[in-house]
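Whiteboard transcription, Tuesday session. T.W. wrote the C-alpha cells on the left side:
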C-alpha cells in the first residue's frame, strides 16, 4: 500500500527502482565478457568449410564472426573500465 498521500515515501517503488538499476548494471557488465567468449568459441570451434582457398587453412582464426564478436567485446568494455577506475579511486582514499 502506498503512503504517498500521507507524505511518506513509497518504499516499494524505491526498491523496484533499485532492483531495476542493479539489473541494468549487471547486463551492461555482462556484455563484454559474453562477446569475448563468443569470439573465442567461434575462433576455436567454428566450421572451417567456408574458406575459399584450401591454402588458407593456417590463416588466423580471428576472421568473420570471431572478429565481429571481438570488436563488440572491445566496444562494450567501457563499463568495465569505468568500474575499474571507480574502484581504484576508492582504494586511493
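and on the right, the sequence the group agreed on:
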Amino acid at each position: 500500500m502506498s503512503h504517498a498521500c500521507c507524505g511518506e515515501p513509497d518504499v516499494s517503488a524505491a526498491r523496484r527502482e533499485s532492483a531495476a538499476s542493479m539489473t541494468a548494471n549487471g547486463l551492461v557488465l555482462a556484455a563484454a565478457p559474453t562477446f569475448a567468449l563468443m569470439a573465442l568459441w567461434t575462433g576455436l570451434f567454428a566450421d572451417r568449410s567456408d574458406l575459399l582457398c584450401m591454402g588458407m587453412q593456417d590463416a588466423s582464426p580471428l576472421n568473420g564472426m570471431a572478429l565481429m564478436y571481438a570488436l563488440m567485446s572491445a566496444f562494450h568494455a567501457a563499463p568495465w573500465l569505468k568500474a575499474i577506475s571507480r574502484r581504484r579511486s576508492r582504494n586511493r582514499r
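Someone added at the bottom: Residues 11-45 form the longest helix (35 residues).
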